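Re: that chain you flagged

S.,

Sorry for the slow reply, it's been a week of failed gels. I finally had a moment to sit down with the sequence you sent. For the record, here it is as I used it:
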Amino acid sequence: MDVVPFNESVIGEKTIIEDFLVINNGVGEVDIGSNALIGLSSAIIGPFLIDDKVILVRLIVASGLDHGCQDARVSSKRAALTRKILLIRFQS
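Prediction finished late last night. Pasting the structure tokens below so you have them in one place:
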């Protein structure tokens, strides 16, 4: 886990976090609900909200931040950084 104390990071009860997962809350909070499963070798970068009972498979990158790469001529280091809360809901 790559977490900082000034942004919240919550993992709900009975949630399974598989090996080699990166959770990063440096840009915004990360809230993972109860009874969720986050797959092997994935990355969750805040701001990010995951509902209860959500299953994310292995080898994914889910990020609430965007380096503003709309113009391919501009380096991502110089592009504007935007944040939007990414929300994944469980739907039965």
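What I noticed first: The chain has a mean pLDDT of 88.

Talk soon,
D.
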